[in-house]
Amino acid sequence: MVTIKDIAHKAGVAKSTVSRYLNGGSVSKKTKTKLDQIVSETGYTPNTFAQSLKAKKTKMIGTIIPRLDSFATNTILASIDEELRNKNYQLIITNTNQNVEHEVENIYTLAKQKVDGIILLATVVTQAHRKAIADVNIPVLLLGQSADGLNTIVHQEYEAGFKMGSYATNLGHKTFLYFTVLEEDEAVGQLRSKGVLDALKSSPETTVEVVETSFSFSKAYEKAMSALTETSATYILCATDNIALAVMKAAHTLGLTIPEDFSLSGFGGYEVTSIVTPTITTVKYPYEELGSVSVANLIGLIEGEDSIRNLELPNVLVKRESTTSYKKSSI
User: Fold this and answer.
1) 278 in helix, strand or coil?
2) C-alpha to C-alpha distance for 138 and 127, rounded to whole angstroms
3) Which residues are within 8 A (CB) of 109 and not within 5 positions of it... i.e. 6 or more apart?
4) What is the pLDDT of residues 7-36, one digit of tens each?
5) Pairing mode, if any, of strands 263-265 and 310-313?
6) Distance CA 20, CA 11 (A)
7) Confidence tier at 140 by pLDDT (50, 70, 90)
8) Could you tell me where the DSSP H helices lie in the chain?
9) 153 vs 147, 253, 300, CA distance in Å?
10) Three-state secondary-structure class, residue 108
11) Which of 54, 120, 169, 327 is most exposed by smallest CB count within 10 Å?
């Protein structure tokens, strides 16, 4: 590998002269011409990592994700990676497997690796999270969970839930089953769920059964296998597309047909929901936009811009084959 020392030796000048030349400093026209030729011949490229260390910036961004088997997470990460590459930053990814303690540990670990900033796809926000963010003293941007006093970018969760709940009641259904997740998850377990339930209960003479399950496909499938044999709901809403897919599989196993036996919808807008049969009604979230917006705002924070505190991204209802108007012949 060609070094600055090699370039200096070939040109017969001091290393400091080569360094000044590479950084756009003042050198004589004759020296510049000679160095231009040597750099071209040797194919020399500056060690940007070493340069960033000297400048006390590593041009590295850390990300903390809750799990690897998530369409949403992977779509966001792909967008983040592309945006960072365009801005000459490197991406470091750490996974927590939805372990809250690991989230906090990874904040400290990434800070020790001298990243310039951290993007955290948070599951919850605890006092331990807040302490870690304060301790590391570098910009940290939270995605998906709002938290007072911290920089966050979130989806309009309540609005999404209310949108889907209103759509379900407008189809004439009165008996609902809602698969939700742990209430500790503020975005999905609280805000999204509240939107759904507020809309369903605002319609007269409706009954709503709420079943708590997991983001995990296999666990949601097990819960659905039990719930589907006992429910009389004509419309089943699921807190995520992954749960909706688990319910669809359980329905197939039990010999039930969608939407003839019950309508089904999810949240997320996962690509697979447009591939399965029937295609699944969902609320589509702007995951790619979330990734690009997060990079722009984190770099702004790194460069000393004012805190963003809380941004909200809108979503859109996508109506597909898995939902239909209520019919008396439904179960």
Assistant:
1) coil
2) 17
3) 94
4) 999 999 998 898 888 877 788 889 999 999
5) unpaired
6) 14
7) very high
8) 4-11, 15-22, 29-42, 48-54, 71-86, 100-112, 127-136, 157-170, 193-202, 217-227, 241-253, 287-302
9) 10, 39, 14
10) helix
11) 54
| Residues 262, 216, 212, 127, CA torsion sign | negative
How many CB atoms neighbour CB 41 within 10 A? Answer: 10
d(CA 305, CA 297): 9
Q: Is the dihedral of CA 106, 112, 113, 117 positive or negative?
A: positive
Query: Sheet of 175-180: strands edge to edge?
Result: 207-212, 175-180, 235-238, 263-265
CB count within 10 Å of CB 175 equals 19
User: What distances in angstroms separate CA 286 from CA 72, 119, 182, 228, one per listed residue?
Assistant: 9, 17, 23, 31
CA distance 273 to 262: 17
The residue to which tokens 């260390």 are assigned: 53
pLDDT at residue 51, rounded to an integer: 56
Backbone angle region of 24, left / alpha / beta, with phi > 0 → left and psi within -120 to 50 → alpha: left
Q: Cα separation of 55 and 239, whole Å?
A: 46
Q: Length of the chain in residues, anyone?
A: 331
- Report if pTM > 0.85: no
Bin 131: left if φ > 0, else alpha if -120 < ψ < 50, else beta: alpha
Distance CA 295, CA 141 (A): 9
Largest CA distance in the chain: 91
Cβ atoms within 10 A of the Cβ of 90, count?
17
**Cα–Cα distance measured from residue 288 to residue 325, given in angstroms and rounded to the nearest whole number:** 32
Strand 316-318, strand 282-284: pairing: antiparallel
Residue 225 CB neighbours (<10 A): 16
Cα 213 to the chain's mean position, in Å? Answer: 21
